[in-house]
Specification:
This protein has 174 residues and is an alpha+beta fold. Helices cover 21% and strands 37% of the residues. Bound molecules: flavin mononucleotide.
């Protein structure tokens, strides 16, 4: 069962959980989930939106660019399990089937084609409205140095994907 919610009633909960990690799910060739620590819940063009920031190198990015949709999954209590955090936050969907490796139980979506996750019931279904590559020269020097020079690939910048929230609910396991 899915209990529909007004996503803005959960703004504080989602925002506070972000730094600890929640999940961004995509479903192209296969279902894949990655930990995100950055994101924004808000409004643009009169629509409720969740914006995610995905580096060029992520498998998630390949899937997002093709399907132009994603789900966000978050726990209603506590935080992500240790193994889920490790697998989804450091391994790539190019090498690993994370659904299996992290023992995720997929839940059928309501509006889009990307499932949610039973174990992390707070779910936002999002359709990409807009994407924007970061322009490195437009950011403060200290941020550029901290996030975009120490990598094996200094061009591994983020792309912002603004997703319209087309459905928001809590999955109840019955
Ligand atoms: C706490 C935490 C937050 C993260 N936040 C982001 C993020 O917002 N954007 C991003 O591109 N990667 C982020 N990552 C890194 C990805 O989760 C990680 O590289 C993942 O393995 C990518 O999976 P994929 O290649 O299957 O897409 C974060 C990792 C952790 C542990």
């Amino acid at each position: 069962m899915k209990e529909r919610i007004n996503v803005f009633d959960y703004a504080e909960q989602i925002t506070k959980m972000l730094p600890e990690g929640i999940l961004l799910n995509t479903c192209g060739d296969k279902f894949n989930s990655m930990v995100i620590g950055w994101g924004h819940l808000g409004v643009i063009w009169g629509l409720p939106t969740f914006t995610v920031y995905v580096r060029q190198s992520r498998y998630t990015r390949e899937q997002l660019d093709r399907t132009r949709e994603f789900t966000v999954s978050a726990p209603t209590e506590g935080r992500l399990g240790k193994e889920v955090f490790r697998i989804c936050g450091s391994e790539s969907g190019r090498d690993v089937d994370k659904e299996k490796a992290a023992h995720l139980t997929l839940a059928a979506p309501q509006v889009i084609r990307t499932p949610g996750i039973l174990e992390y019931p707070l779910t936002l279904e999002c359709r990409v409205l807009y994407r924007q590559d970061q322009v490195i020269t437009e950011m403060p020097e200290e941020i550029r140095k901290k996030y975009y020079t120490r990598l094996p690939d200094p061009d591994d910048f983020h792309t912002a994907y603004i997703g319209e929230i087309v459905s928001a609910y809590i999955i109840r396991g019955d």
